[in-house]
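Hey, I'm writing a tutorial for new members on how sequence and structure tokens pair up, and I'd like a real worked example in the thread rather than a made-up one. If someone can provide the structure for the chain below, I'll link this post from the tutorial.
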Amino acid sequence: MADIRKYGVLRHLRSDANVHVTRFRNGKIVHAGRGLAFWFWPRSTSVAELPMDDRNMVLFFKGRSKDFQTVAVQGNLTWHVVDPAVLGNRIDFSIDLIGGRHTAKPVEQIESLLTGMAQQIATQYLAEGNVHELLDAGIEPLRVRLERGLADAERLKAMGLEVAAIRLAAIAPSAELERALQTPTFEMLQQKADQATFERRALAVEKERAIAENELNNKTELARRETQLIEQEATNARNRAGGVREAQQIEADGEAGRIRTIDQARLEMERERMAIVRDLPPQVLLGLAARELAGKLDKIEHLNVTPDLLAAVLDGFKNGGRAA
């Protein structure tokens, strides 16, 4: 916006470097250029101010697909003035010489024109495909179509305008259609989630079964080892008992052998003794018998020696040397 100051009957205008100012006096161009500053007489002067920088505008319009579904397009368009003299002849950019503002709305007119042209190209593009095809293709084909269509537009060239860039944010269906299109995907994702839950539960059950089976195997192994331990302990007990029996048998055999040896020695002694006694005279035998008898008596009060008694003692001495 130009800065206009009043000094008495004269006024001074100072413009920014990004605007093109055209000064008319009595219907003729007196000054034209960017960033001008001049004094002027308001009664005979008119001024037009055109923006020379890039201007951004929002694109939002709706179209209908080939299968009669409503589709909305959102984006951003950048335009700028190429020939301010031509554009100034086509659109009124006159400014108020008091406040420096445009008396009309030239920028809104240009944006309305660009919006209409872009919508016409986009509507034709949307009508060529089904909604699934449009959504699958994305924004790039439409952006290229808009860029080419507006760049080749003779009307814009004739007005001294040029589209610098087009950026699209999305091609979106209506809310009801979007929910309908999302339903199969949601169902598929839900099925995958259910499948994952089922697989997770099945895996948990399988792990629990494996744990239970492992515990059962451990118990079985422990029982088998316990059985082996019992059998081994029984074998050890039997072996110990056999060893004890063998030791006792050996000890008994040794004791029996010792007794047999003693008895054999006694028997040999008796045999030798009997052989000696057998060769002794009767008088000697009688004396020995009396001594043997006297050794077995604790107390003798009366002693009657008869021939029968002596015969019995002699027979006992000859048979074993001990009378009962």
